[in-house]
Amino acid sequence: MRAEIIETGIPKLKAARIIINAPVEKVFAIVTNPKMHPVIDGSGMVKGSTVGPEKLILGSKFGMKMKIKVHYRILNTVVEYKENELIAWNHILRNRWRYEFRAIDPTTTEVTEYLDTRQSPFTLYFHIVRVYEWSPIAMAKTLVTLKEIAEK
């Protein structure tokens, strides 16, 4: 089972997509629970949640323990939200993680994950650490893990 890496045509916008054999409500509930982020993360960077509600909604703030060579913590804010359709958050670097959910039928959901760095002033740093190269692969791995969990 694989996720599709999508070519967006925009260098600072990366994306991956997968079809999950589970209702949209179940898949959305997994992604909107910050305690599940370390479980589904395909990058290996998310090490645990620190603060936040059990279910994210517009304006929710939630913290994550992270590791990219060194351990650190990051505080995210949900900046887009539509129940069972989309959620997006960003943090101090202003890169936006966005998930879109589309119910294909009552038991099948298409999920697209995006990393959008167009509003970030740190894109030179993202090039240096090769974010644009590895993030689509990490997103695809995240979506595969999300599929495995949602289809149980």
Please give the structural blueprint.
Layout: E1 4-6, E2 13-20, H1 24-31, H2 37-40, E3 46-49, E4 61-68, E5 70-82, E6 86-90, E7 96-105, E8 108-116, H3 123-128, H4 131-150
InterPro entries: START-like_dom_sf
How would you describe the overall organization of this protein?
The protein has 152 residues and is an alpha+beta fold. The protein has a single domain, classed as START domain (Alpha-D-Glucose-1,6-Bisphosphate, Chain A, domain 4, 2-Layer Sandwich). The chain contains 4 helices and 8 strands. Strands 1-2-8-7-6-5-4-3 form an 8-stranded antiparallel sheet. The longest helix has 20 residues. It is globular and about 40 Å long. InterPro entries: START-like_dom_sf (IPR023393).
List keywords for this structure.
single chain; 152 residues; alpha+beta; Alpha-D-Glucose-1,6-Bisphosphate, Chain A, domain 4; eight-stranded antiparallel sheet; 4 helices
In short:
The chain has 152 residues and is α+β, with helices and mostly antiparallel strands. The chain has one domain: START domain (Alpha-D-Glucose-1,6-Bisphosphate, Chain A, domain 4).
What about the largest sheet?
A: 8 strands, antiparallel
How much helicity do the residues have?
25-40%
Let me know the number of strands: 8
- Enter the CATH topology name: Alpha-D-Glucose-1,6-Bisphosphate, Chain A, domain 4
CATH second-level architecture: 2-Layer Sandwich
Separation of termini? 15 Å
Please, what is the CATH homologous superfamily?
START domain
Poorly predicted ranges: none
* Structural domain count: 1
**Average residue-wise pLDDT:** 95
Q: In angstroms, what is the radius of gyration?
A: 15 Å
Strand content: 35-45%
What's the total helix number?
4
Class from helix and strand fractions: alpha+beta
Order of helices and strands: EEHHEEEEEEHH
Overall 3D form: globular
Task: Provide the spatial order of strands within the biggest beta sheet.
Answer: 1-2-8-7-6-5-4-3
- The CATH C-level name is Alpha Beta
InterPro entries: START-like_dom_sf (IPR023393)
